[in-house]
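Contributing: when you submit paired examples, paste them exactly as shown. First protein:
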Amino acid sequence: MTTKAWGAHAGNKPLESLDIVRRAPGARDVQIEIDWCGVCHSDLHTVRSEWPGTRYPCVPGHEIVGHVSAVGSAVTGFKVGDTVGVGCLVGSCRHCGSCAEGLEQYCENGFVGTYNGPTADAPGHTLGGYSQRIVVDQHFVLRVSHSEDRLAAVAPLLCAGITTYSPLRHWNAGPGKKVGIVGIGGLGHMGIKIAHAMGAHTVAFTSSEGKRQDALALGADEVVTSRDGAQMKAQAGSFDLILDTVAASHDLDAYSNLLKRDGTLVLLGVPAQPHPTPNIGSLIFHRRAIAGSLIGGIAQTQEMLDFCAQHDIVSDIEIIRAQDVDKAYERMLRSDVKYRFVIDTRSLAG
């Protein structure tokens, strides 16, 4: 089925209107009419070939919310009209150890990304959510229970939400725990909201004193200006967990030194250049850890969506037309958005 989409034919070309073909729903497939698609920094990296391996034409988008328009004969969990989401994954081997544990994001045979992943469908790689329609195996489709008027702001939960929820849950954020969130952007603002809702004492770190009130409004109990040595020193040895959402190379010791014994600094951003080598002594003598975390499995992503619906958590967004994506990318690079762009896919019609 021919579907309107927005994508690029090369990394040095602007995005443009494309006609793509979606497969007819198979027995296990769910066909979704996309209403909203969030714009992630990964979209920019991929479509502009800033990460290796981009295949063209490239249609980005893995923060998808829409409604079911058709289901295959073997689909049991969804029906036409259901409100659903699709995140970063549309496939995995389903039989390795990680998949068996519901950790499809760590599939030992390689998960299939919602865009730029291998597929038997033409053109040989997956095409993402900057489009009017998508067809996905039912296992990778998620239920959305937020109200209709919140759906645009739900879309970024499918990446930014789960990317922060997963480590917060894995490292047991909650009452009695002190959690830091480094960076108040697309990921960081969700981390603040979710950590606060989990009942953790939540501290936001920002390099800009001007973001203090914004961070408090998002739910932070405290705000620390990371460039202020006195403020940072006052927090030394007090954190159970710190999520570092910054995707630029920076000094990790500034944050690992704030951990308690047995505390963990979790890295969520992938910098273009490596971080400076951390002080190993600080880790050894306090049994501190530096770890990483990648989105979440399907079951945990559903758990996150349900948690966010229960606590009325959505992303702070700015709605744009597909035709304005390149401008949105440039604004993202300047951190000129609070805090996530979302495409209204009705704009694809003309």
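Second protein:
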Amino acid sequence: MLLSVNDLSKSYDGKQVIKDINFIIKKGEVVGLVGENGAGKTSTIKSILKLIRHNTGSMKFEGKEYNNIFDIENKICYIPDEPIFYNNLTCLDNIEFIGRIFNDEIDIFNEKYKELVRKFDFEKHLKKYPEELSKGNKQKLMIILGSLQNFKLMIADEPFTGLDPVQIK
């Protein structure tokens, strides 16, 4: 078991948006949260990541309960629903910056990022600044940046927003 969520509930100003959610994610599984807008998907994700406080429930990562985001740091990669970049850096600079934080072996990092850039057909955007990118290309950059991290679980909120069918596949 990689992640277990037990009896998770969350309210905002007395309005319950998450009620008694329970699930387990095993290594190698792909799981999707599906629901209408406002159903609580993002609140569930942010509660799991300890970015917001939940009202009740508990989460365990690799069998251990965790109390704050620092307990799961470098174990869970999060791709938010709104892209976050260093806008004063080019796309390549963003990639290299994240790479230096999460990768000790420069040769392995270079190979990894070049493969991701090829896979996402992103070569032509490397010298651009993030603000110059389309919504879909911003999303590609977020996925590339997230994939450069060494993690055991990736949580992505609205990961396919702006992507064409080829890139989604």
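If you have annotations for the second protein, write them as plain sentences, like these:
The chain has five helices and six strands.
The chain has two domains: 3-72, 91-168.
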